[in-house]
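Protein modeling request. Please complete all fields; requests missing the sequence field cannot be processed.
Requester role: graduate student
Desired output: 3D structure, token encoding
Chains: 1
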Amino acid sequence: MEIIKKSEIKILSNPGVESFQLLNPENSKSERITITRVLVQPNNEQPRHKHDTSEQIWIAVRGKGVLLLAVIKKNYLNPAMWFVLQMEIFTD
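Delivered output (92 residues):
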């Protein structure tokens, strides 16, 4: 078991978006999983990006939005849904 201290959590910010890198290869022995808490303010978006070395799981806790991917052009996300995104389907 690993314990990640608050001081080891990197926070990335863009206008209207805060990403808390809870678990990633920089603060954990895990090389294939990244856990990030993303707070997106209304009428904002997180720029498209990819994860070369880890898979990502999206779980909507509150609110709703649109998840944009290369393969699936648009997928509507709300608290009743979750997605497991494999590395190879991410886009730049």
